[in-house]
Amino acid sequence: MKKFCLIMLLGCSFGANSTFHEADVRYNGPASGYYSFTITTYNVSPLLDIPNMCNGAKYACDVRLIMQAVIGWNPTHIMASNLLVDKNPPSSCHTADCNVSLTGARTLGELVPLMKYRGAFGKPSTQFAAYSQRYRTCILVTWVQAQTTSQYYVDCSPVKETNAGCDINDDNAIIDFGTFSNDVKTRQANGSFRVHCANDSNIRVKFLSNSTKISLSDDGKLNAGLKIRNSTPGSTELESFIKLPAGEQKIFIDAELSNDKTSHVGPFSASVVAIVEVA
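Structure tokens predicted for Fimbrial adhesin MrpH C-terminal domain-containing protein (279 residues):
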């Protein structure tokens, strides 16, 4: 029998879900006189029908998701940001799913395929900032024209504690490849574990070791790769993000085994550890 065992752990965070973007802000605690925050952008809606001020831009121009302090009713300085797209390559894409450029898109929503192409979503960014009682997230466009820097903020939303309250209902996920002979080159299998969340939640799954090529034999010719189904890639190949509705849900792990004429015989098993937390 060919098996993997994944062990799961859990954490907590803050969130901001506006009309046209989804993001999480995690408060990590005080650090060196400041406070540590991790901000992650999950999605920007293609329906964001706001003019793209980078259209036709000859100089620097970028689009970011930012976290901003709010004092009273007045937003103040920017505390942290995620770059979504700028003029550094790749500032355009020409594939079946993405055919747009930063300076050619009419609206910000039209830039979403390019943001995905650049891998802008699901990347946590940890930064240090002064404490404020309230924060908000916005999409910020900055452009330079005739030596003048201009900015505008759109789709702003207050940051609030998610209180997701998620529990993992399984201690492990078993992936069983069954029994096969050494002339079988590939085989697919899957496993799952159950998560129960009180509210809609964004879940981060991070493997603690390489999950794309797990060696299963001493000769290195029998390997397996794991992937979280319906997930968004994170900043490294080790982590993925998945959005779950409230209630009990299953998270599936898809696996593919590859065999290059291994000399290994008999059954085997391997353990892969992953951390699961509210992002």
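Residues 215 and 223 are 5 Å apart (CA to CA).
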